[in-house]
Amino acid sequence: MTYDPNDPHRPFEYPSLEQSGRPVDPHAARGYPPPPSGFPPPYQPYGSPPYDPYRQVRPQGTNGQAIGALVSGIVGLLLCFCFIPSIVAVVLGILAMNETKRTGQDGHGMALAGLILGGLAIALGIVFMIIGAVTPDTTQKY
Hints:
Blueprint: H1 17-20, H2 64-78, H3 83-103, H4 108-134
């Protein structure tokens, strides 16, 4: 059925997709040329990785747990019979090694050193306790 295009009482019909053309952006600036298709990449020094705005940023500084593991490992080694700092050094060392591996933060070596010192202090404390329990007491008088 064909209607007269000038008839004000004809039903409204949407134009076909072939006739509609490109959609008009109502927010586009009028009278200006369209923006360029691509922007040049930002300045990159020679040898730097490509710019990626969505990459995870590496945390700055040294991991605090790694520092704590190293300090408590040293304290536990100096006080061989005090197991609490040594146990803290082992736990913090494991946690800090996992976190530095995951985030890329500095301090992996400190965490490893704290773990080793804490384990060494625990082992020496146990050995000294066994030696003290096995050796006879020679200070008693009969």
